[in-house]
Amino acid sequence: MTKAVRGAGVLAGLAVWVLVGPPSVQAPPPGGAAPLAPGWARLLASGTLTAVNQPPQTVTLAISGAVRLEEFEGGSVWRQKALGGTHVVYLLPATLLVDSGLRPIPAAAVRPGDTTVLWAAVRPDAAILALTLQVTPSRPQMVGSAPAWLTSAGAVGVVLERSGSMLQILTPAGTLRSVVMTGVTAISSGGQAPPGGAVSPYDILRVEGPVNSDGSIAATRIDVEFTTASAAQVSGPVEWSVNDLGGLVVGGTMIATSADTYIILRAALARFADLSPRRPVTVYGTAVRAGDTPIGLRARVILARVY
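Now predict its structure.
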């Protein structure tokens, strides 16, 4: 069971693109997310991979399906451009490689002959930089990894609320679990203790410990897998939405999501389809960078607000 159920139709009709209003160029907000600068473009394209570097730092895509390429000219002007043929696509450290269910896949699973849908930024020099590469294999091979909560002991989830030593977390199954922290609870983040042992709302945790009679978990160990305190962040209404591929534009920033993204609405898990145009959201994640230039955001938690 994935954390967000996607709507259908990215290859049949390819995507739903809704333009609410092109963003103005602005300084990067805290955490490193940033809208594209003039001369850059957003690209959605489908086709077939004709070559893959192993380990893949580039792939070659022969475009054969629908394409949407919009170049930002500054101010409020976006210009649609044509694109066809075969192109080299650069895979960045934060590029999402996913299967048709948006489950993360290993680099070794990407092979020539695979059908692909691409969500990417395009530099002014025409270099294509992938945020998401969705792969449908041309032959049986490794599939996306099972969600960690299905294969590991303990509980995994995103913190909805903290009150003193009590946490309420929302699991990938959509259930709420109470977690009790004590004086002997070991808390770590990336193998190190977080400052002040802090655990905050919208952090993603892995919790180990026995279950109390009331169903709460007496935490002996908490691993903070993602913390909002140091995350890239962007807020605003949804401007563009790419169904099934999990692409968004918020605050002029390109967003990539996967089955590992928690989408939260009214303290419950929501679907990607709930992120409709104009809905206000706050996105927390990891900046996708081309060198020192932030070009997008790989989302881990999306808070969808009520209109």
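Confidence is low (pLDDT under 50) at residues 4-30, 142-153.
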